[in-house]
Amino acid sequence: MKKQAINARTYGVKPWYDPRVRSLVYQTLAIALVFWGGWVLVENTLSNMASRGISTGFGFLDETAGFGIIMHLVPYDATMSYGRTFWVGLANTLLVSCMGVIAATVLGFIIGVARLSSNWLIAKLALVYIEVIRNIPLLLQIFFWYFAVLSNLPSPRQSADLGSALFINNRGLYLPQPVPQEGFGLFIAGVVLAVFAVVWVAKWARKRQLATGERFPMVKVALAILVTVPFVAYVIAGDPLGWDVPALKGFNFKGGITVIPELAALWIALSLYTASFIAEIVRSGILSVSKGQTEAANALGLPNRLTLRLVVIPQSLRVIIPPLTSQYLNLVKNSSLATAIGYPDLVAVFMGTTLNQTGQAVEVVAMTMAVYLTISLLISLLMNLYNRAVAIKER
Amino acid sequence: MRKAKSIALGVALALGATVASGVMAATTLENVMEKGRLQCGVTTGLPGFSQPDEKGNWTGIDVDTCRAMAAAIFGDPKAVDFTPLTAKERFTALQSGEIDVLSRNTTWTLTRDVSLGLNFAGVNYYDGQGFLVSKDIGVNDAAELDGATVCIQAGTTTELNLADYFRAKSMEFKPIVFDTSEQTVQGFAAGRCDVLTSDRSQLAALRSKLADPSSAKILPNTISKEPLGPVVRQGDDQWFNIVKWVLSVQINAEELGVTSSNADDMLKSDNPSIQRLLGTDGDMGAKLGLPADFGYKVVSLVGNYGEIYDRNVGPDTPLGLDRGINALWNDGGILYAPPVR
């Protein structure tokens, strides 16, 4: 390319025969065309909506919403604005997505490894799980958990309880809420201290292993530190945590933390469904590591657990990460099925009620699409960064 | 060079597209006449208002409003295709032109009338929001509902009225929002919520869907005004007038005592109001762009308002609703149609 360009200039070729100039012109034209196309679409939509008397603009975001939302992580009541309903919905979408990604990953890895177990029963159980769950539509599974399982729990007055602090009924799971009191800072300090201690010990143990080859029971020690230090701090501070225990008042339990069945059903269904796909991805990743690697590790006398952790999984991650990213993206997008069972996610609240009350479909749908696009791109970005970290380093 | 040509072609196409999309479309009446069918947006299934039977025949007040229009336009009440819509979908379907008229127990409010590019053509049922509760919880008045969990349909005015009502009484509630009214009943039956709220006419219908209808009761409170009626797109006054006047013809017919069974005899009537209504005198049809006998077709093929009410939601139907405020103005109600003249 560069050589050509020099040649072209040297031999005094006309600019319109210069490939560099021509490609630049074409690309500028193409970009201009795309922008112009986008502008025409927006302009056309706006003028058509104006001629039909449909309100446009984002002014509606400041108007009072006037409807209730059952679950909100950010403060909300009916006197707040439509803009606030957007954040309420977004927070609920992110909550169920994060919970789903974590649970699906853990479950998927366990089942994927179990699928390859030399124990016949475990391997077949994992196989059955994968084949059953991934072949049933997700919406049906959500309905199953919501209408067939959680709706059949007892009514509030016949709640199942555990130690009269934790209650389960068909309105949700009621947990006591911790209320920090005076001296709670000491407990926090204890936790921080414990974490620092663990990091320091881990560094020391690693250094020692590299120098002497002697191994250190890191997991046990870390657990011991993490439990003991905060506990001691807790006792010294004199029990600085109060509990807001839910109690039956009127129609329902009040106080404490409520996990609504809509959230539970959606979370369970999303996690189980995505886990079945992740399990297959994990299996393919593990199988992609040549058997010679495992055999070599065994020959060195590494136990199976360590072979898996130190030899197989790090190599299989290179195969696992890209399709795993797709599964995370699917999970986030599938969370919009929430609207089917009334979980107040972004689609149900913002693209449902808010859209309907304001009638500003174009703006609301555009905002919602932009949000899903942003979340998906962020996940892609993070997973690509991680992928780069675990990819084979060509040296 | 070929590339440059194709770009030029692309530019021309895009420009052409913009020009074409700016051209005014034909009127709704012309479109409907050309199709030979009326496309009518209804509910996904609400007894008494719009509900398909096992053969796929739609019945209900809202359905008959559309059938009356088809009778007026084509002289055939069956020339209607129904599009079932959820509350969330209805306005978009009308705005986008997917349906010609929305007749889906839709409440007439200022915001909807003004900012959605739509026009409400009248009222075919005066309703109000009420509460359905299970008898177990021992509540007799809506004021006792503090802290209750409420099942509700998404995208309805009831969602807003509910929040207003509880706020005005400084009571708390937890809304469970479902997409369709069937799901709200399912949630209510499963005990997910203590209360189901909707328009009172719907509550009767929804209660009849419960396994044991006598286990639930409708509270006496009415917390809102819900005038329900057909909706059309803004910007086509002729179509707007047709919907408005077909509705008025039905109400006037009841007032004048013209029914589907006596319409043929009434053609010989010498009452000038009846003559104008049935098209034996004057050119009311032509003024609307309809056949001269459109009123006769509406009444003889579909019936007057009273007949429609009685066969769909009246005391002899499963809904068993009294006329109440939906009676004629000279009969204790508030139905008052402008005269056909």
How would you characterize the overall build of this protein?
The complex is a heterodimer of chains A (395) and B (341). Chain A is an alpha+beta fold and 395 residues long. Chain A has 2 domains: 2-48; 82-176 and 245-390, MetI-like fold (Orthogonal Bundle). Helices cover 67% and strands 7% of the residues of chain A. In chain A, the strands form 3 sheets. Chain A has a 4-stranded antiparallel β-sheet with strand order 1-2-3-8. A two-stranded antiparallel ribbon of chain A has the order 4-5. In chain A, strand 2 (166-169) and strand 3 form a beta hairpin. In chain A, helix 3 crosses helix 8 (261-288). Chain A is globular. The relative contact order of chain A is 0.12. By secondary structure, chain B is an alpha/beta fold. Chain B has a domain at 128-225: D-Maltodextrin-Binding Protein, domain 2. Helices cover 40% and strands 16% of the residues of chain B. Chain B contains 14 helices and 14 strands. Chain B has helices at 2-22, 28-35, 61-74, 90-95, 110-115, 157-168, 181-189, 200-207, 237-255, 263-266, 272-278, 284-288, 294-301, 305-312; strands at 38-42, 51-52, 58-59, 80-84, 101-102, 118-120, 125-127, 129-134, 148-153, 173-178, 195-199, 216-218, 226-228, 231-233. In chain B, the strands form 5 sheets. A 5-stranded mixed β-sheet of chain B has the order 10-9-11-8-12, with helices on both faces. A 3-stranded parallel β-sheet of chain B has the order 4-1-5. A two-stranded antiparallel sheet of chain B has the order 2-3. In chain B, helix 6 links the parallel strand 9 (148-153) and strand 10. In chain B, helix 3 (61-74) packs across helix 13. The longest helix of chain B has 21 residues, at 2-22.
